[in-house]
Give the backbone structure.
Amino acid sequence: MSRNLVVILDFGAQYRQLIARRVRESRVYCEVLPYDTSAERIREMDPRGIIFTGGPASVYEEGAPRPDEGLYELGIPILGICYGMQLMALELGGEVERAPRREYGAAELFIDVEEPLFSGISSPTRSWMSHGDRILSPPPGFEVLAHTANSPVAAMGDPARGLYGVQFHPEVAHTDQGLEVLQNFLYRVCGCEPTWTMGSFIERAIGDIRERVGDGRAVCGLSGGVDSSVAAVLVHRAIGDRLTCIFVDHGLLRKDEAQQVVEAFGRAGLGLNLVHVDASERFLRRLEGVTDPEAKRKIVGEEFIRVFEEQAAAIARDTGPVDFLVQGTLYPDVIESGGGETAAIKSHHNVGGLPERMRLRLLEPLRDLFKDEVRELAAELGLPEEITWRHPFPGPGLAIRIIGEVTREKLAILREADAIIIEELKRAGLYREIWQAFAVLVSARSVGVMGDERTYAYPIVFRAVTSSDGMTADWARIPPDVLARISSRVINEVPHVNRVVYDITSKPPGTIEWE
Ligand code: XMP
């Protein structure tokens, strides 16, 4: 029996990892490989199925990516998606036409043959299309399984050989029963079993890290967020004491955050080497008088690199040369910064110059994962809940949540207001379903009245958004009574604040942070 594994061949699809993610969600292990991986190599891997992703090319373009033709002879089921389907159609003798214009968006899919690919799928069903070429007639041996108004062959299959193609994108959420279609391919066509777990991911990741690092040493900038924490714990499991984590307190953290992070790691008994540096004086001094948001980001970034370098140098003096820098880069970060090996650092990330300057190699064990998968991993690794579920927090911290100059007084106000917001959201049971919630302090003042007195004080902006990856977001529909409680507590308990406003802007056109 072949391995319970599916190989995804990448033809340049922008969201190829989304297919991988859906396969993992279906509890089947998968690997994404380049489209030109040889049939021989794939035969050796012995997978139960192969998926061809979509891609931006037209099958008629010169130099359009093509797979090894030997793949069709392996007797392994193949599912071609979009471009992958057109390739299969063309190569096996079907008729593919260059459509006069691209079809993009939702289309009603009418199912002509139910078993096995469309078993349990209603007809018509909403499917998401994004293609230029279309198939006029399927290759010999194939039958038409579904059509739309624009695509006479929206799905095709040759059950005898286990070859299938779909014109639409089953991996995207806009395709109503897309996951079921993929699962029909995995379970019914390939005979995969839903047995893969995050536990198996951990074992594999640890093995890979060991192999890559050898007997080298690594450092990790721990922020207390879930991504860097999970990356650190994974690498620690792999190389133990040869990893040292550096937690830099830049004085721009939330209320009691430094203490909470250090305690959480201590309490979790994870045994990490953790160096805690209080560098707040240095950062705050350099931020004096600075109001421009990009200038603030730059200062925090530069200073962070300096502190980190000093600490890493001290570690190297104590333990021997350091070779790797561990980062908790996730798949959406890779996409946002354009993909590729070197572009892997978060687009907004402040330690961008670090690996080159220190001649460190990057170790990014979470590169293929999405946030919710990382949280699942965190739970599996035994990380404490306050880290697993912590909202994302930007590198420059509160510096970009204070509009205007950063002062100690404003930081103190913002921390108190922020802590009340988070406390009330947790109390209302809303914290986990919100992607990020926080307070922003605008350096303007407005008039109010408290008791018999006229006040002239700061407004606090309350921002809470829902999102799945931070790339797009919507403002959270917080129940009015929770908003009321937050407003009254912030105004009553935080000095120098006399007004609370709620931000009802989605992203786009807004961003999540105010600066
Ligand atoms: P925006 O504001 O661009 O934020 O919608 C998207 C996500 O990125 C975080 N963010 C940052 N993270 N350094 C970081 O490490 C930064 O300079 C930065 N700016 C924004 C933001 O909190 C949200 O999760």
In short: Confidence is low (pLDDT under 50) at residues 338-348. Residues 142 and 158 are 4 Å apart (CA to CA).
